[in-house]
Description:
The protein is mainly α. Helix content is about 60%, strand content about 5%. The strands form three sheets. The chain has a five-stranded parallel β-sheet with strand order 2-5-6-1-7, with helices on both faces. A three-stranded antiparallel β-sheet has the order 8-10-9, covered by helices on one side.
Amino acid sequence: MKRVWSWRLRRRSTVVFPLLFALVAVTGAWQGGWWSVLLAGIQLLLAAAVATVLVWPDRPPRPARRPTADRLVGRAADLNRVIALLGEPRETGAPAPKAVLIHGMPGVGKTTLARRAADAVADHYPDGHVRVSLTDAGVPVASGDLLTMVLQKLAWAYEIPANPSERASLFRARVSGRRILFVFDDAQEPSQLTELLPNAPGSLVIITSRRNLSPQLNVHGFALDPLPEREALDLLCSVTGLDGFTAIESSVRLVQACGRLPGALQALGARVADEGADLALLSPESIAADLGRASRPRWATAAVAGTAAEFGRLSRLERDALCLLTQVRSRSFASWVLGPLLRVSAAKSDVIATTLAGARLLEPAGRDDRFELARYRFHPLVRTFAEAHLNQDADLASTCRDALDRLRGVYLELARSALDGSAQHPLPGLDMAHHWIPETSPRARAAECLAWIRFEQESLWEEVPALLERDRDFALRLVAGFTRPHPAAVTVAARTGWAEITPSPVLAFDYLLAHVRIDLIAGRYEQCETVIDGVRSRTRPELLRGRALMHLTAAEVYGELGWAERAKRHVAEGEALLRTGGEPTLRSRLEAARQLADPYLDGPLPDDAYWRAMVSATRHHVHHRHRNVIDDLCPVTGGEQGDDHRRTMLHRRLAQANWELHDQSRTDVGAALLAAARHAMLAVLAAESTGNRWEQARGRLLLARALTAHGRDEDACAQRHLAEKLIADGGRPPPYLMIGDPQWSAPGLVG
C-alpha cells in the first residue's frame, strides 16, 4: 500500500504542490472587508481542487501494445467446465479437498485458464490464496523445496524444519481446518505434488501440467485443446489491433501454422504490434525460417519455450525419433515407422512413440487398420521446431537419407504384399517388414490390405513418381488402389506419358483405371472420357468389373463436383454393366453415385459414412437448407487427419460460407460477412491439402463475394484473379465455375 501511495503522489505532485502554494498565497493575502467573501470563495475552490486531485482515482492506463499473459479469448465454455469440476469432490474414500488438473500441450493456455478459474472462486476461500510454480527455468522443483515455498507463502514466521517429513507434517497442520486456495502451475512429475495435496477437506487445489497426471494423483482431469478456428482468429485480431478483413488470407494461414495455440498467437501478435511487421507479408515459411535460426527472435522463443523444455528432457534416441518423424510426409503415421527409421524393435518403437505422446510432442490419431497399432500426428509448431533441430544437427541429417530409404522399402514391400496377397494365401515378400513390425499377419484379408493402402496413400503417393521409372506396372497398380485426390497426382500426370506406355496384358485394366483416376484428379476430364470410351468394345465377362469400376469412379467424382449430366451418364453405364449381378460393394457404390448425381431422387442412404453424409447433404442443398447441410457434414469416421474427414470438412466450410452469405439473419451484417470470409479461406486451405483446384477456386470466389459486400473491392479482385488462374490451369471446369456466368459469386455445395 505504501508503495502504491508513494507512486500516486509522485505522479500528482506536479498538480498538488502548485495548488497548495496558491492556497497559502491567497490565505496570506487576507485583508478583510469586502474582499473576504471573494477570497473565501477562492480558498474553498482551491481546497476542493487539492482534495479532488488527491482522492480522485487514477485514470485507466493506456493499453499496452504488448499483449498480456492473462488474455482469455474463446474459453468461456472451458472456464465453466473447470469451475464445475472444482465443485466435485475427489474420488477417494476419505474426505479430501476439491482438486482439478488442467493438462494440455505447451502454449495452449493452461496457466491463464487456471488463474481465471481461481479468480472466479477466490471469494469462497478467505484464509489465503497460494500460487506456486513447480518449475524453475524448465527444471522441476523438488518436493521439499516446494513445501518450503508454500509455508513461506502461508506466512509461517518461524524456522522451517529441515527434515522433509516434519516439513510435510507442519504443512498439513497449517492448512487443517482452513479454507485455502492453491494453484500449482506447471507440474512435471506426480512426486512433486504428493506432499502438497492437503488431506483434509475445505481447501481447493488447481494444478496445471503438460502431462495427464490425474490418474496418479487421483484428481479430476481436464484436457485443454487448442482454440477453434473462429476464436483463434479473434484472438490474433485482438492482439494485433487489426480488423478481421485485413490480410485475411495471411491471418488464416498463420493461425493454422501456429496450430491455434493461444501462446503462439499472442507471441506472433506481439511481433506484429511491437516490431511493426506487416501481417500480410508473414507466412508459415517465414515462421519456420525464424524458428530455424540459431538465435531465435524473442517472439519465437516465447512460442516454443514449452516445446523446447520438453524436447530437452528427452533421451538422445527419443530426440532423434522426433526429428526423423518429420520426414514422414503423411499427416498421421503408425508407431512401427520408428523401426526402420531408428533400427529398433517394434516394442521399442511403441515405447518411444508413447513417451513422445506423453510429453505432448505427438498427438493421438486413432489406430492402424492393418496392424492395430496406435497412430500419431504432429502439431504444426512441434513439426516446425523438430525440422529446425534436424537441420541444425549435422550428424542426424547425414543419417536421415538412409533412414528414409529403409522406411520407403518397407512401405513398398507392404504395399506389394497387400496387392499380391489374398485370404487363402499368405502375404508374400515380407523380408524387411518383419524385422520392425509385430505380427505381420499372413491371415490378413485382401480387403483389409486394400484398406491399409488407401489409409497410407499419402505416404505411398510420394513414392509413385520415382517408382514409375523403376516399376511402372507396380506404380499403376498402386494408383488404381487409391481412392482420394492428392496433390502428387499432378506430378504423376505430368510424368506418365500415357501414349508411350505399353502395359502388360494382365495389368491392362489396372493401368486404365489408374489412367482414369489420375486424369480425374488432375482435372483432365476429356482424356478420362477418351479412355473410358476406348474400353466400351471389351465385353469379356472378366473385364466387366473393371469397366464398372471406371464408370463408378467417374460418376462419384462428377457427382461430387456437381457435374450432373456426366455423372448420370456414367451411372447409367455402370448400372447396365452390373444389371446381371455384381458385388454388393459395387452395387452400394452405384446407388450412392446415383443419389449424388440426382439429389431429388429418394432412397436409402449408403452404408459408407462419407458417401452417406454427402448424399444427405446434397438432398438438403437442392432445397437451400444450408443449416441442414452443415449438420450433415459432421466429421466422419477415419480419424481427424483422414481423407474422408478432410474432404467432409472442405464441403462443410463451403456450406458454412454460403449459409453466412444467404441464410444468416442480417442483424449483424459485418459479423456474417467476416464469418463467411473465414470459412471460405479455410475451405481453400482444405482444398489445397487434397489437391482439388476446383474447390480452391470455389472457395476464393466465395471469399471474393464476402470482400465485395464489405466494400473491399481491391482485395476481392485479387481473389477473383486467383480463382480465374486456377480454372485456367485446370482444363475444362465444372459448370458452376464458369466465370462469365452471373451466378459465379454464389456457388453452392454441389453446383
